[in-house]
Design brief:
By secondary structure, the protein is of the alpha+beta class. It has two helices and 13 strands, in the order E-E-E-E-E-E-H-E-E-E-E-E-E-H-E.
């Protein structure tokens, strides 16, 4: 049995889980998320916990068991506490600022880049730090990856947008004139 899949998902206070066939709706203080799960996994609520069981023992079903449990746990965490990804900007003149809800990036291009937040996403910026907050873990991660892709960190000077705590391997520049 899947080590992840067999663990029940605890339902915290103020979070409501509703199961309608294979569609699960999780409602909490931060918002509501809905997802349709595969029919190979059966979802039930017992004693304030969501329990997932698979219908067979085929490899495909074992894979989906752990995946479904992880997705459901992320939904519960998202509506109760939310998710945050932080990006760090490095480079001379590189910075980020907010114009209302819009994130404005100055990252060495001839123009500034304006990003509007999607539904359930909020941006916050402090000069060289960007925070992306939301209730859907996949959406927060994808938006962070898209922002990083605008100016990925380069290995010679280290300039660019990187995840907070990400280590960039630096390369030596050109060697001087030799022999």
């Amino acid at each position: 049995m899947s080590r992840i899949g067999k663990q029940p998902v605890p339902i915290p206070a103020k979070v409501e889980v509703k199961i309608d066939g294979q569609e699960v709706t999780v409602k909490g203080p931060k918002g509501t998320l809905t997802q349709t799960f595969t029919p190979e996994v059966e979802i039930t609520i017992e004693d304030g916990k969501v329990i997932l069981t698979r219908k067979g023992d085929a490899r495909h079903q074992r894979e989906l068991h752990g995946l479904s449990r992880a997705l459901l746990a992320n939904m519960v965490t998202g509506v109760s506490t939310g998710f945050r990804r932080s990006l760090q900007i490095e480079g001379v003149g590189y910075r980020a600022e907010m114009e209302g809800k819009t994130l404005v990036l100055y990252v060495g291009y001839s123009h500034n880049i304006k990003l509007e937040p999607e539904q359930n996403i909020t941006f916050s910026a402090e000069r060289t730090l960007i925070h992306i907050d939301g209730i859907d873990k996949a959406q927060v991660g994808q938006i962070a990856a898209n922002i990083r892709k605008l100016r990925p960190p380069e290995p010679y000077l280290g300039k660019g947008i990187r995840y907070e705590g990400e280590i960039i391997r630096r390369k030596a520049g050109k060697a001087g004139k030799g022999k």
